[in-house]
UniProtKB/TrEMBL annotation:
It is an enzyme of class 1 (oxidoreductase). InterPro entries: FAD/NAD-bd_sf (IPR036188), MQO (IPR006231). It catalyses: (S)-malate + a quinone = a quinol + oxaloacetate. It comes from Flavobacterium crassostreae. Pathway: Carbohydrate metabolism; tricarboxylic acid cycle; oxaloacetate from (S)-malate (quinone route): step 1/1. Pfam families: Mqo. This is Probable malate:quinone oxidoreductase. Belongs to the MQO family. Its cofactor is FAD. NCBIfam families: mal_quin_oxido, PRK05257.1-1, PRK05257.1-4, PRK05257.2-1, PRK05257.2-4, PRK05257.2-5, PRK05257.3-2, PRK05257.3-4. The keyword Cell wall biogenesis/degradation does not apply. One of its GO terms (biological process) is tricarboxylic acid cycle. HAMAP family: MQO.
């Protein structure tokens, strides 16, 4: 039989049509308009997995309200560094989105970003003391200077009437508020970005295409075998650079690439569910993102929050997410994903990390065993008057927490995002979950600097970086004047009614 395989040559291959690939593709086309890019996605649309609005928290993880980014140290002090770093990264994302809107490359910012206060809410003397300390530490920083702390019941009722209605007033409660918070629909944003990318010369997007094999050639280039899932047609693509941004599907592809930098990496899948409100009157009462404290052992994606969202033009109210365990690596994945990912390289790091994370295992077992009544009971800690008939279960996203080899400890479970790049810069892989989407621009800028070193250092690319990101090379937290100027500018461009 004749070989009917389609062959093509390109400069860049992006695997996975999520926010990461969309961001990297756009950045590269801005830096080098004639660059040739091919994008491959297993599903029939962009942003159907982790980037979809139902599958992520949508807070625009700016670290205003997520308490897991400001851990309390053994001596009682609060470490703000992770929160500051994430807030910085989110400001970079906002600048890039504002640039795309100004240039007419992404239309209608109101379709993907809206203003909404970000609140942290706690109860009990110990938690109130923690929140006050966190507030005092963060408010000293430029990026958090607008944070307000309150224990006043009347003020809290104004901030979050649904949360305070019917609450037992004997218990000590406190909250912080950041009015300049946002709600980001990363699915809508990603699809807008791909819509623009698809109009550009030199960009080809292939949906319903699955990557079967990746092999590096002697000259450091890559050959990739791909199947068109709709027709069965085989394809071979030859390229200088590959980015794997396939969410939970990235780990199996990293293993297929067979590079030394990928040795020892494993993945621990965590699934999620929301309680979704179906009563329009209840939905209308809440207009904030209210985050609480995570349970002991809970992964970051499971920090409880009562969350007002705009999804596909409709106001939604979600509570959760409730964590669970599935052996799938993607929402649309296979139950064999986890067993097939175990290799002789990563089995010990995975066992070792599992032994050290017994509280997480215990937490996930408890979550899986929860009944609907148990979930409603958890909801009533945040919405005391919640009625079970007003809420239904909605399936949320699937995340794969990174497990990596460690010489001393055998294996470490990482809750953040991890970018792996080969020594020659020809392959980059993004693993992990939170904070993910909201920091995509910073992650991709760093990736470009690592994988396209010579071009990134050139005056032409440096000038373009500064055009796309006005604060490029500077730290907003250390520069109040620039920070205020940029926040004001991006708020105007993105139609955010922020002060």
């Amino acid at each position: 039989m004749p070989d009917t395989t389609i062959r093509s040559n390109t400069e860049v291959v992006l695997i996975g049509a999520g926010i990461m690939s969309a961001t990297l593709g756009l950045i590269l086309k801005e830096l080098q308009p004639d660059i040739k890019i091919e994008i491959f996605e297993r599903l029939d649309i962009a942003a159907a997995e982790s980037s979809d609005a139902w599958n992520n928290a949508g807070t625009g993880h700016s670290a205003f309200c997520e308490l897991n980014y400001t851990p309390e140290q053994k001596d009682g002090s609060i470490d703000p560094q992770k929160a500051i770093s994430i807030a910085e990264s989110f400001e970079v994302s906002r600048q890039f989105w504002a640039y795309l809107v100004e240039e007419g490359k992404v239309p209608s910012p109101e379709n993907f970003i809206k203003s909404i206060p970000h609140l942290s809410f706690v109860w009990g003397e110990k938690n109130v003391a923690y929140l006050k300390k966190r507030f005092q530490v963060l408010q000293q920083n430029q990026l958090f200077k607008d944070m307000v702390f309150s224990t006043d019941l009347k003020e809290l009722e104004q901030w979050m009437p649904l949360v305070m209605e019917g609450r037992e007033t004997k218990e000590k409660v406190a909250a912080t508020s950041m009015k300049i918070g946002t709600d980001v629909n990363f699915g809508a944003l990603t699809r807008s970005m791909f819509s623009y990318l698809s109009t550009l010369d030199g960009v080809t997007i292939h949906y319903n295409h699955e990557v079967d094999r990746l092999r590096q050639n002697d000259d450091a280039s890559w050959r990739i075998k791909i199947t068109d899932l709709a027709t069965g047609q085989k394809r071979k693509v030859y390229t200088k650079f590959v980015f794997i941004g396939a969410g939970g599907g990235s780990l199996p592809l990293l293993e297929k690439a067979n590079v030394p930098e990928g040795e020892g990496y494993g993945g621990f899948p965590v699934s999620g569910q929301w309680l979704k409100c179906t009563n329009p009157e209840v939905i209308a009462k809440h207009a904030a993102k209210v985050y609480g404290k995570a349970s002991v052992g809970a992964p970051p994606m499971s920090v409880p929050h009562i969350d007002s969202r705009m999804i596909n033009g409709e106001k939604q109210l979600l509570f959760g997410p409730f964590a669970g365990f599935s052996t799938r690596f993607l929402k649309n994945g296979s139950y064999s994903d986890l067993p097939l990912s175990i290799t002789t390289d990563n089995i010990w790091p995975m066992i070792s990390a599992g032994i050290k994370n017994i509280p997480l295992t215990k937490y996930l077992i408890e979550q899986v065993r929860q009944s609907t009544e148990d979930r409603i009971k958890a909801l009533r800690e945040y919405v005391p008057n919640a009625k079970s008939e007003d809420w239904v279960i909605e399936r949320a996203g699937q995340r794969v927490q990174v497990i990596k080899k460690d010489e001393k400890e055998g294996g470490i479970l990482e809750f953040g995002t991890e970018v792996i790049t080969t020594l020659d810069g020809s392959l980059a892989v993004l693993l992990g979950a939170s904070p993910g989407a909201s920091t995509a621009v910073s992650i991709m800028l760093d990736l470009v600097a690592r994988c396209f070193k010579e071009q990134a250092a050139s005056p032409e690319w440096q000038t373009k970086f500064k055009e796309m990101i006005p604060s490029y090379g500077q730290t907003l937290n250390d520069n109040p004047e620039l920070s205020d100027q940029i926040r004001k500018h991006t708020s105007v461009v993105l139609n955010l009614n922020q002060h």
